[in-house]
Amino acid sequence: MSEVLKQPAEFAAGVEFKKSWLGYVPAMLAVGGSILIVLLRWRMGGAGFISDGALMMLALACYLTAATFYLMNLYAPSEMAQKVGLWTATAGVFFNLSSWGVRWLAAHDRELAILQRNGYGPEQMPWFFRYIPFANLYDLSLAFAFGAGITTLLIAHRKNFRFLGAISLPLASLILLLARFIGNEFVDLPPILDSYWRPIHVGVASLSYGVALVCFAIAVIYLLKDGIKTEAMAIWSSIFSIAVLATVSRFSVFTSFAYGASTFMQTPSGGRRPIPLRVEIPMVGPVLVLSGLLLLAVIILFWTYLSKRSEQARVWGHRLLKLSLVAQASAIALLVSQIKTIKDVWPRLQEQLAQDPVGYQRLGQWIAEQQGLKPAEIAQVPVERLEMAARDFLQANGPKLFLSTNANPVELSALITAFAATLFVILFSFRTEKLIAALPSKEKLDSLMYKTGSVAFAGLAMLLITGAVWANESWGRYWGWDSKETGALVAWLTYAAFLHTRISRGWKGRSSAYFAIIGFLLVIFTYLGVSYLLPGLHSYA
Amino acid sequence: MRHCFCRIHLFPRYIRMSAIEETKNETAIATPPVAVSKKDAVTPSLILSKFLALLSSVRFGVVLLIIVVALSMIGMLIMQQNVDGFDKYYAELQPSQKLLYGSLGFFDIYHAWYFNLLLLVLSLNIVLASIDRFPTAWRFIRHKKLEAGHRFLESQQQHAKVQLETKTSTELSERVSRAFRAVGLRPTVTEKDGRVYVFGERGAWNRLGAYAVHVALLTIFLGGFMTAQFSEEGQMMLTPGLSTNQMTNLQFNLDEVKRVPVGLPFTVICTDIQQKLIHKDGSIMANNTIDWLTRIQITDETGTREGLVHLNNPLDYRGYRFFQASFIAQGSARTITLRLTKEADGSTQELSVGRNGSAQLADGTRIDFLEFFPDFRIINGKPGTESDEYNNPAAVLKLTTPEGKQLQAFAFAAELPSGAPVSAAVGGYKFRMVDFEKVPYAHVLSIQKDPGKWPFYAGGTLLILTLCGVFFFSHQRVWSLLEERADGKGFDVVLGGNTNRNKLGFEDRFKRLVGEIKGQPVAEGEQS
Q1: How many CB atoms lie within 10 A of CB A47?
Q2: In degrees rounded to 5, what are phi and psi of residue A110?
Q3: Are the C-beta atoms of A368 and A392 separated by less than 8 Å?
Q4: How many Cβ pairs closer than 8 A exist between chain A and B?
Q5: What is the DSSP code (8-state) at residue A282?
Q6: Residues 6 or more apart in contact with residue A416 via CB below 8 angstroms
């Protein structure tokens, strides 16, 4: 018996265990730390403790910082940048989960206050899960970003894959930004949602959405590594951005060169109520149109380059792409700064309505709907009466109207996402060769894409099944083709196709990557599109 | 290869997955497909086999999935006729849209014949593709490949060669087996033609996971089919005192809703409805509600039993499930608290009466709480309500005097001017409603009998378990060939292995295995 005895297998395995365990320390620290923070918040109470909103902003800052360092590390590899990236990402996940946990306790305090105000005793306190922060899109976005963050950290136990944060963390930041725009006010939980299936269903949703996001990030990186030209990527990202520009502000950007921001009305109880009237924000419309035209030119130029190998078209395409980035950034800056500074909403609105009285009719219809009139009944109301109702309403409430970045969270986030897409294509075009060389091999990326894709698939299956069981237990039907249900099913089927194309034809790599990208886009469509565009049971979240 | 029997011949070779990689590296196992080789003669059996080949191909399955996705998207973008607000949506459509979507069945796409056909073909595809591929997967379990030659080993995802100065092949095979075990692979040692092979694997069962997933899916489909065929559903509007043995089934046809009564094998009597509000003084709308509770009695030939239905807590009886579904938003009162002022001496007393309930006074007068109006108004000479809101709440009472005389009285929440006719004393008393507990006019329960839910639940559970089984595990295999070196100074260990999933994890394991055999455990830096 020779060397085997000198190196007992148990010892070797022990070393190995310790080594692989070390890679998970950041994820464990982030989760463990936030549990501590939540316990601390529980012991100390809400007064003087950091709020969930502040923690969320810290998470956002950390994600952005980490992404910057990871990106730096891709272009100029350095151990330091990578370490800073990893540990700020860890801090980001920590703040993100802490924010969610602290929000749970804050919701508990709020619930208790409501009970006391109504003269109920603490024995009436609803159970623990009634106020779990899974009530609206803000809560869900917080959890979604956490899902993406923790997946990134878990994958980072392999050193080669730490770069992934360079893509996945900016995406997580966009989701947190969306949360910021939605606003962290608590909402009263619709009673129908008060079921123990909710934490299970929504928890599974946010984690599997997070994994799907990481799978998407890997797919994009894979395409880059596979040699897809950044010009081709620019065409797709520009199409996406133009689609965003065309749809925001009720399709008004390209039709009337104007961008209107949605308004809120102050309610007597100190709350706010969305009003279907948009106030035109000066300059924003034209700058958005300019960005759209630049992007269109980019598409044409890059198309020419790709089909006719015209070098000049390529050079000009890149110049215009950068110009459009500047234009998009200016539009967003103009929009956000003016939303924050414009106070004379009512006079502006009066001027606007004087030129375009159709706005009165639309508002009149909305008022009639609010009064519970059915569409057939509204159709019988004379237009003048609708207009009159709208004028009366505005006479009384016009001065109470105001602008807020929270009035249109999805539009603002979409504009910023379009900007980010353009930014990333520009980044990828910069020293592309070097960037590609710094990435792991295609096989490794493909393998990781498959792994995350299959976890997302399994997660989405759980999402569908738990949702169906919940629906059956609460409403007596497990499947009703509700638009959110169908959306989740469609995303799941796309991931199913992703997995099957791989086994059936040995399609790996590029085609799989396309499926992974489409799958994630469908997840986002289900997440936001269904809630904001389509009616149905899930229209609250 | 006997296990791939003739069935496989029905299917062209290309449609089978590269299922087992060793097939192509080993002996040429796959026999040329018989059907395809007879390409000149177009016989019915050829057409049939080609059709079967198409139906059972995974590629066709992917195409079907894409079609299901596309149709489902249409159903998401075009509002379906059973969704709330469809009438508004439908009213705003252009006539041409109505005609086009209507004729294509887009307003109820998930129940259209072509959608059902698509699901049927998809189920068939799942069954056939699984049958087609199962034998190959079964081979991984029943007929393991235990030996491997140089060429095979070198063509594996992972391969390595280790030189060791061990004296005998037995000693070496023991050492290699120990290393296999140390990294979690179960070793089998084979000696053949003077060569020693050690084969190790883990998770062979994982090869069957995909089939279990498909069984789960088919179980879910079965549940869906049973629901579509055998389920009964309907709604029931209940106010206290109401008794019924019917439910109403809603049938949608574009913007028209047809109400069809469906008989039940028992009678339901509503005894009480209650609404727990967040703000007691607030509205009775959903956003101010914690819970709705409906108490019922169910009577059939076996007797009578009490039951409570509340939100997210359905009641089960004889395969029927009662759910709290919605409510009629006209304000009413569950109990009222009355202040009675005796006309004779001005003395007052307070008493509570439940909806449809009554109370007896000390002097023998009986008070029945008949009706409640949230916004009291005399309409056409009769008491009624102006709106659904609690603007002017009033209760209608029936007084039965000790002498048996029946009188009608009103109790208002608001202070009335003393001269008002309704505030005049009735039966010797003046009435005032000092408090009332808000509740809607009626609760709507939905009732469902669904034998398909059991296969659905079973299939769903199985789906989650099997998907975890498939994706969180993998079948990892390593072969090693132990060869004495030509110079007699020890042995060469040639290793090769593959996995069906988790290549990165397998790569780590393989490196650790090589390290174990060498006697040098792998450091973290070498991890991929």
Answers
A1: 6
A2: -65, -45
A3: no
A4: 194
A5: T
A6: A174, A177, A332
pLDDT at residue A540 tops 50: no
Cβ contact B323–A469 (<8 Å) = no
- Partner-chain contact B521 A12, CB within 8 Å: yes
Chain B, window 270-309: residues with a beta carbon less than 8 angstroms from a chain A beta carbon: 278-280, 286-292
Are A474 and B312 inside 8 Å of each other by CB? yes
Residue B84, number of CB atoms within 10 A of its CB: 11
For residues B308 and B295, is the Cβ–Cβ distance under 8 A? Answer: yes
pLDDT tens digits, residue range B293-302?
999 999 999 9
Nearest to A483 among B76, B171, B527 (CB): B76
Cross-chain residue pair A479–B519, CB shorter than 8 Å: no
Would you call A16 and B521 a contact, using CB atoms and an 8 Å cutoff?
yes
Whether the CB of A374 is below 8 Å from some CB of chain B: the reply is yes
B162 C-beta neighbours (distance < 10 Å), count:
19
Of B69, B279, B501, the CB nearest to A118: B279
Predicted complex ipTM: 0.85
Q: Which chain B residues are closer than 8 Å to A443 by Cβ?
A: 503
Q: Which tens digit of pLDDT belongs to each residue from B159-185?
A: 999 998 877 888 899 999 999 999 999
Average pLDDT over residues B249-257: 83
**CB contact (8 A) between residue B62 and residue A473:** no
Calculated CA dihedral for residues A128, A131, A134, A139, nearest 10 degrees: -130
Closest chain A residue by Cα to residue B453: A478
d(CA A489, CA A468): 11
Token digits of residue B87: 């009438």
Instruction: List chain A residues with CB under 8 Å of B323.
Output: 474-476
Is residue A379 within 8 Å of residue A361, measured between CB atoms? no
Angle ∠(A142,A147,A151) on CA atoms, nearest 5: 150
Nearest to A150 by CA among A277, A290, A5, A28: A28
B279/A376 touch (CB, cutoff 8 Å), yes or no: no
Give residue A225's pLDDT: 93
Q: Does A110 touch chain B (CB under 8 A)?
A: no
Instruction: Give the pLDDT of residue A402.
Output: 92
B356-380 pLDDT tens trace: 889 998 888 999 999 999 999 888 8
Which tokens go with B115? 């959608």
Any long-range contacts for A534-538 (C-beta under 8 Å, 24+ apart)?
A: A534/A483, A534/B76, A534/B77, A534/B79, A535/A483, A535/B79, A535/B83, A535/B84, A535/B85, A535/B89, A536/A482, A536/A483, A536/A484, A536/B83, A537/A480, A537/A482, A537/A484, A538/A482, A538/A483, A538/A484, A538/A485
> What's the confidence (pLDDT) of residue A534?
60
Alpha carbons A81 and A79: distance in angstroms, whole number:
6
Task: Provide the pLDDT for residue A91.
Answer: 97
* Residue B95 to residue A380: CA distance in whole angstroms: 19
B69–A493 C-beta distance less than 8 A: yes
Residue A415's pLDDT band (boundaries 50, 70, 90)?
very high
Task: List CB contacts (< 8 A) between A12 and chain B.
Answer: 182, 515-516, 521
SS3 call for B506: helix
Cβ distance A504 to B59 less than 8 Å, yes or no, reads yes
Choosing among A478, A507, A527, which should be mutated to test the B contact, i.e. which has the most B CBs within 10 A?
A478
What is the DSSP track for B485-497?
-TTSSSEEEEEEE
pLDDT at A201 over 70: yes
Torsion of CA A113, A117, A122, A126, to 10 degrees: -70
A322 to chain B nearest CA, in Å? 35
For A303, how many CA atoms within 13 A lie in the half-sphere containing its CB?
Answer: 10
Distance CA(A510)–CA(A522), nearest Å, equals 19
Q: Do A13 and B182 touch (CB under 8 A)?
A: yes
